[in-house]
Amino acid sequence: MRTLRLWPGSLRSRLFVILFAGLVIAYGLSFSILALERYMSAKAVMLGTLETDVATSIAILDRLPAEERPQWLERLNRGSYRFVLGPGDPGVPDLSARAKDIAGRIEEAARHKFAIRVESIPGQAPRLQAHLTLSDGAPLTLDVTPRGVMPIAAWLPYVFAVQMALIIVCVWLAVRLATRPLGQLASAADALTPSRKGVPMRETGPSEVAHAARAFNAMRERIDHYLEERVQILAAISHDLQTPITRMKLRAEMAEESIEKDKLIRDLGEIERLVQDGIAYARSAHGNVEKVSRIDIASFIESMVYDYQDTGKAVAVIDGVAGNVQTRPHALRRILTNFIDNALKFAGSAEIMMERRGEAVAITVMDHGPGIPDSELDAAMQPFYRLEQSRNRETGGAGLGLAIAQQLATAIGGSIRIYNRESGGLAAEVVIP
After folding, report:
1. CATH class of 11-144
2. Per residue in 396-415, pLDDT tens?
3. CATH value of 290-432 in 3.20.20.150, 3.30.565.10, 3.40.50.720, 1.20.120.1760
4. Is 192-289 a domain of CATH 1.10.287?
5. How far apart are CA 366 and CA 346, in angstroms?
6. Overall pTM surpassing 0.70 (yes/no)
7. Which of 175, 273, 384, 425 could potentially form a cystine with 15 if both were Cys, beta carbons 3.0 to 4.6 Å apart?
């Protein structure tokens, strides 16, 4: 059973939820405290009024003759209470703390001269009636309608809605300002490619952001410098090794014919090819030295196929596309040559298929060979990994072909992948923009 994931996954969403929830809680607490303070103030004003004005009014009515009392009722009535001569309306004894508090305040203000009985009157509006008996035995009822002394204005909910909208906007802007540098840094890290010169990050903004941008740019420069040194060192090693290897081959060829002479010449040739493959792999990481040019992709592929067919190789195009692409032709040719050579080596034939995928072109080289175990597909892209374990270069090679193709694909802004076909055989695909 899948559980509902309430906690967002992105940092921006989490910060937004945390800040927004914190502000809403703080705002809610402030609003609650304000409402409680208003209630307590209203209660204090009402009870204070009962304690002073009501006590004075009861004293006046108690001293007036019975026939003059009705004339004074309108003068003594207030917004939250009124006096009624008589027993009042039938009600239910109210034993709540509020009723006891009202009765106690009135009795205390009247110096406990009159016994007060408070009842709750049924109805839609909350009403309380305090019953007492004047000195001459006449009943007097105080009809109390509790109401807020400071009522909430009708426009207050709209103000609350506007404030919540402002909170949302401010929180969103703050979170966006805080997380944008992280997004820019992540994009720059994703675009960091040893074989491609990228645009440095802008070293502007807050001090922490500018410092991170400077550190990232410095790191990228160091990586480029280390890679350049690697190529230079391997190029120097290649130059220094090729010279003695050539001298050794010449001396071996001048020696008398023998089985050992042939073995020695083959070993020297293998060493020479291994050195050349290593240099090719190192230089493929800097395949962007070749200029980008526009080519007709169909003609480009057909020319390669014709070259193979002229040498008697079984290479054919089974599906093609028309149109031009901008790429580095020599790097693309090296990639496809590697795919085709592998197909010919392990299957004896190769088929090429082209198709458009949006703004990109996918070129797939397929064969009908044994394929590669699924567990070794990823490892086959690593340098010096050989599927054929006999260490015989005539069948297994040095294990650099796919690694070189992968680096060249990155250099031209594309990607490669290999997979086993459902009908049998291996497919090697390169996608170029």
Report:
1. alpha beta
2. 455 667 777 777 777 777 88
3. 3.30.565.10
4. yes
5. 11
6. no
7. 175
